[in-house]
Amino acid sequence: MSISYPVTAQDPTIVDDYHGTKVSDPYRWLEDSHSEATQAWIAAQNQVTAEFLEAIPERRSIRSRLTQLWNYAKYSVPWREGGRYFWFKNDGLQNQSVLYWQTSLEGEPRVLLDPNTWSEDGTVALTGIAVSDDGKWLTYAISRSGSDWKEWRVREIDTLIDQPDRVQWSKFSGAAWTKDNRGFFYSRYDAPQDDLQDVNYFQKLYYHVLGTDQEQDQLIYHRPDRKEWGFNGEVTEDGQFLIISVWQGTSPQNLVFYLSLQQENATVLPLIEEFEAEYSFLGNDDQGFWFRTDRDAPRGKVIKINLTNPENRIDVIPEQQETLQGVSLINNEWVAFYLQDACTVIRRFSLTGAPIGTIPLPGIGSASGFSGKRYDTETFYSFTSFTVPPTIFHFDFQSNSSTLFRQPEIDFPLTDYTTEQVFVPSKDGTLIPLFLTCKKELIGQCLPTYLYGYGGFNVSLTPSFSISNLIWLEQGGVLAIACLRGGGEYGEEWHRSGQKHLKQNVFDDFISCAEWLIGQGRTTAKQLAIAGGSNGGLLVGACMTQRPELFGAALPAVGVMDMLRFHRFTIGWAWIEEYGSPDNPADFPYLFAYSPLHRLQPGVSYPATLVTTADHDDRVVPAHSFKFISALQNAQAGDAPVLIRIETKAGHGAGKPTTKTIEEAADKWAFLIEVLGLRSRNSPAATS
Known about the structure:
- The chain is an alpha+beta fold and 688 residues long.
- It is built from twelve helices and 40 strands.
- Strand 9 and strand 10 form a beta hairpin.
C-alpha cells in the first residue's frame, strides 16, 4: 500500500546542550497535547493509520473472531473480609468487571459495584477498593479515561447507598481502614494545574473520617524536604499500628515508619531509615514485625524485627535457591511464592520458618492469590499458563487439599497447543529464559514469530494467558516470551544487571533471542515481529533502531522513547532510579546512546512499525510516541509502513474497556498479517 504521511512541522531552533553535546529537538511542540496544532496532527495521523488498517481484508474477521473468543465468563480470585466473600466477574464482553459479594460460598451473589453503569463507553473504571474490618463499608476508587488519578468514594455494602464522601487527587495509592471502621488512610498530591503532564512531587499521607469533607482530612505524614518521597499506609491486622512504606522512584528499596494507633497523640517513628533494601510488611505480634526483604539476600528472605531493639533481626525463612516473590501469613503459617526459572512454586513454612510442605500446582505456570487473615483456614488461588486460562481453586488447610472452584469455558482447542522453555545465551553468555508456544504439530518448524519482552523495574514475565494471543497461535504463529535482565525473575541482582549503565544488557538479551530464533531455523527476520509496552516499548524502540534488519515488524506500545526528557513529565522523574538521569554527566552518554528517538537515522530501512499510545496516558505521556513516529516517518527509507494508532479517552492501559481492547488487538494482528505477508495461512481469522 502506498502511504502519504502527514507533514510534521520541525523547529530547528530548539537545541539543548547536554554537558557539551548539542541535541536538537525539532518536534518538541508535540509535547503540548492540548494545543490545536497537536490535536490536528493527532487527527491526521489517525486518519492515515485508519485508512491503512481498513484496507486489510482480514481486519473485520479478526475482530469478529476476537469478540467470539473473548465472550466467556471471567472470575477473579475471591477473598474474605468482614464475614463476606468478594470477587469480580465479567460475563464475557462487559467493558468492566463487576464486583460481587456473598455471605457464604453457597450463598446468593449480590452485585456491589457495576462500573459499566458509570459511562456509556466504559471509560470510567474501578481502580481501587478496600473493605472495612466489620464488612459494613467499601471505599472504592474511580478513574476516568485511563488516567492514574483516582477519586475515592464510600458505599454502604448492605444498602448499596453511596455516602457523600469524595477524596480527590489520589494517585499511586491504596486505602486502608482503621480497626474501628471510622475511616481510612490514603495518599494524595496537591491539585495539579495540568493533570495530564504536571510533575508529581510531594505526595502526602492522610486519614479520612467517614462522613466528613476532604478538607478536614488529617495529615498523617509528609516530607517537605523530600519531594520525591511517596507513602503507602497499611494497618496491621490487629489494628495496633499503621505501617508506612516510603518509596522513592521505582527502586524496590524503601524506608519503613510506623505509628501507634492505640496511643493518643502518638508520633510517627522510624524503623528502616536507609534506602538499603526492599522491605515488604507481612504481619506482627507482640514482639515485632515480619518483613520480606532482599537485604543480604538478593533472592529474598523473611525476617523479624524486634520493636524494642530494631537492630535485632532474626532470619525466619532464609534465602533459597529460587526467587521469593511474595509471602502470606495465613493459617498461622507462611505461604511463600517462589519463582523457579520464571514459574511459580508454592512452599509452606511454620511461623518459625520450618518447612512444612508445598502446595502442588496443576502444572508449570503462574499462581496468584493465597490472601487471608492470620488464623483463616481457607484461601483461594488462581493458576494460569500460556495455554491455561486463569482457573480458580479453593484450598483447605485442614484437609491440605485444593478443589476446583471456577474454570473458564473457552471455545478454543487449547489442548492442541504446547509450551516449551529454552535458555538462550546472550551476548555476554548469560542464559535468558525464553518461552515458546505454538501448535503441537508445528514445534521446531520455521514459523512467523511474535517476540515479546519487558526487561525492567524488577517486573517478572511469568506464564500468563491472553485471549488476544490465541489469534496469533491460531494463525500458526509462535508466541515467544523472553525473560530479560532488568526483570525480577532471578532476584535483585538480575534486576540490577539490566538497569542504568547496564541497560544495554536488556537490549542485547532481546536481540540474542531474536538471533537464536533465526539461527535455529525457528523463524526468519522477515517473519519476526517484536512487541512490548511501556518500558517494553522502550525495549522495542531501542532494538529496532539498533538492529533494523533483524525484524520484519515492530509494535512499541506506550513506550518511553525520549530518554533525555522522560523525567520532565508526571511520574517520569521516578524512573531515574531505573534509567539514570540525562542531567547527570555520568548517565547522559548511556541514555543518549540508546534513546530510540535519538538513534533514528535518515536513509535507513526500518521494519514495519505500528506505534500505539493514548491521548490520556498520564504515566508515559504520549509525546514520547508522537515525537518518535514523526522522526521515524521522516527517516524511513524503505517501503515498510510506519504508523501510529492514538487511542482517545484512554490511558496507559489500566481500566481500558473491553471494546477498546478488542479493537486495538484486532488492529495489531491485522497489521502483522499485512506486513509479514501471512495472508495465505489457513485459519478462522483469515478465512471467515
